[in-house]
Specification:
With about 230 residues, the chain is an alpha/beta fold. Helices cover about 40% and strands about 15% of the residues. It has ten helices and six strands; from the N terminus they run H-H-H-E-H-H-E-H-H-E-H-E-H-E-H-E. The protein has a four-stranded parallel beta sheet, with helices on both faces. A two-stranded antiparallel sheet has the order 3-4. Helix 5 (about 85-100) packs across helix 7 (about 130-140). The radius of gyration is 18 Å and the shape is globular. The N and C termini lie far apart (about 50 Å).
């Protein structure tokens, strides 16, 4: 009764559209869930995310869960995840994403999930690593462990938002480091990011990880821009 009274006085709102949630809805209303713009890239080995890395970095496969457009539902969700202290969005969408990945043969033999690391200073300011929250959701659905200590970011780089592809690569090419190579030897690593645009940040990670003996890398991202 107390919960019902609180919901009446302070109704919970959908984090995508801001409409009041009904009793059986969590974080995102059913209408927004139904209209989430899924890419279904996990069913296409030649999808647009894979093509980003052709000739640039050696990967097993790559995919993204959702398309995003400027001012759209997905961009609004990601903005809240990154800048409005809503880590539950990452976990929630990561769990949904994991259900799709489990249907794809390409993601059946993953050994470990690694989120793209943030520098400790940026993590402290934000309160968490948004990619780690997505990884946590994936882990809960796929039953695969998350490793947040073996691969780290040593340098606190400038934001990538307004940089072109070359500048993004120059900004990140030497900022990542493997702290525990033995933990990742001969592993199939699922590398997780929130958004992939040029792929420069992910490319920097891939180059470090594939230098490990026997390591293979697949890439997933929560969102990918529409063309």
């Amino acid at each position: 009764m107390l919960k019902d009274l609180l919901n009446l006085l302070y109704p919970l709102q959908c984090l995508a559209c801001k409409k009041n949630l009904h009793q059986n809805e969590t974080l995102i209303c059913l209408d927004c869930l139904f209209h989430l713009p899924k890419t279904n890239f996990h069913n296409d080995p030649n999808n647009a995310v894979c093509q980003l890395f052709w000739g640039r970095a050696e990967i097993e496969t790559a995919t993204a869960f959702l398309f995003f457009t400027k001012s759209g539902r997905v961009q609004h969700l990601i903005h809240q995840l990154k800048y409005s202290k809503k880590p539950e969005i990452g976990v929630y969408l990561g769990k949904l994403f994991g259900k799709d990945l489990l249907k794809s043969p390409s993601f059946q033999k993953i050994d470990v999930i690694i989120p793209v690391p943030l520098h400790p200073k940026r993590t402290k300011v934000r309160g968490y690593n948004q990619s780690e929250k997505i990884a946590d959701g994936l882990s809960q659905t796929m039953k695969i462990p998350v490793d947040t200590t073996s691969f780290v970011r040593r340098t606190n780089t400038e934001t990538q938002t307004r940089k072109n592809r070359f500048s993004r690569w120059e900004n990140v090419k030497e900022v990542f480091s493997v702290d525990n190579e033995n933990a990742l030897k001969n592993k199939h690593i699922l590398l997780v990011d929130d958004v992939i645009t040029t792929g420069a940040t992910i490319e920097g990670c891939i180059r470090k990880l594939t230098a490990i003996e026997g390591a293979r890398v697949s890439v997933v991202s929560l969102a990918f821009p529409t063309t």
